[in-house]
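Hey team,

Filing this mostly as a record. A colleague (T.K.) asked me to run one chain through the structure pipeline before their review meeting, and I want the input and output archived in the tracker in case anyone asks later how it was produced. No errors, nothing strange. Just documentation.

Input sequence:
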Amino acid sequence: MFEVDKTRKHFVPKLYLRGFCLDNPPKRIYVLDKGKPQDEVAVRSINNVEVSRDAYSVANDAILQEREDAWSETLKILKGRDASELNELVSDRDKSAELRYWLARLVVDSKLRSRGFRSQMRESANEIRLRSRSRIEALEADFRSRFPDLGEQIQIMVSLFKDVAGIDNDREFEALRICPFLRGEEGEKLYRLYEEGSWRFDAACDRRKFITSDIPSNSLLLGPEPEYRNWMWFVMPLSAELRLVGLCGDARMESGLAPRMGDMGNREMDIANVCVFQSAQRFVYASSKDELLRASEQSTL
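Output structure:
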């Protein structure tokens, strides 16, 4: 857990990005960089976007790879079914239990492991790192004053601790301390909150495509805390043709199926893609250049 993974992986897994690739050439995707609005939409290989070298600990990366195997199989199952068939499935909580288990983790972890979310957490993580380093340096000074004959040993011990914890390196500290998934009993409780929600799959309307971003999923409280702490809505485009939405906690329905808010026409597609565009930290992805440009233009209106 104290070693940073140095291999070339991805913040947003390729197994997910494949659902937003061009038909021809395959494994290539349109990319819009919100940080460089003057640049044109680019076409890149999914091998070269969202690269996450030095992003996670070795232990955490191993767990992510195990989960990716299950997510890959889950997305393959979804690819062969239409939205109405999937909605019939999730209306039965027991029959959809395994699908819910893995998709809930995909929704939650896709945000926690993403470059966009980690970028948002960077400032607070660095504040924790600096406070931790100050405490260690204060302890070192205290030990040196109390045990002046052990100066060399104290220096070795402190240097080793700083190295293991990544306290002198902000990127290393981020990789070791920002977990890309939930842990423990509280983590499982939140995963179950998503699993047990009322879900609905939406199909993109004719000749339109869903887009995604460097923060693939988003969750919102449906009102101010504390009254609405357990009222939650989430959304995640699963491919260019399919997205998943859900109502969780006290907002969920008795049925496993969330109510239809309306057909996915052009207006609804515009709203869906603009929301994805606006929630992106920097990079937006799609199988359609027109969809990226349309979402970008409408986000400025």
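Quick notes for T.K.: Residues 115-146 form the longest helix (32 residues). DSSP finds ten helices and eight strands in the chain.
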